[in-house]
Amino acid sequence: MFVHHVFFFLKPELNQEQQSAFEAGVKSLLPIKHVKLGDVGKPASTDRPVIDRSYSYSLLLVFENLADHDAYQVDPTHLKFVETCQQYWERVQIYDSETV
């Protein structure tokens, strides 16, 4: 398995309409055919010193392998999301992992 975990740090000045547009955009990535499992979330209410809750949204995608991940990266839906929604974030942090 190949796991792609993306953390979005949205601009603090976004209004509700812009936040909704971002949320719709990121959710549009879930049905891409190469995605085996996907989830969009916000920071949980857990409160422990080791938990980083500084991000706005997370996108967790699981692929069968690296080739599926690479195909996802150039999928038109993904490219459209980046093009239309990058205006909403200040920073993106990505963690990729492969099953051991």
UniProtKB/TrEMBL annotation:
PROSITE patterns: S_R_A_B_BARREL. Residues 2-97 form the Stress-response A/B barrel domain. Pfam families: Dabb (PF07876). This is Dabb family protein. It comes from Adhaeribacter radiodurans.
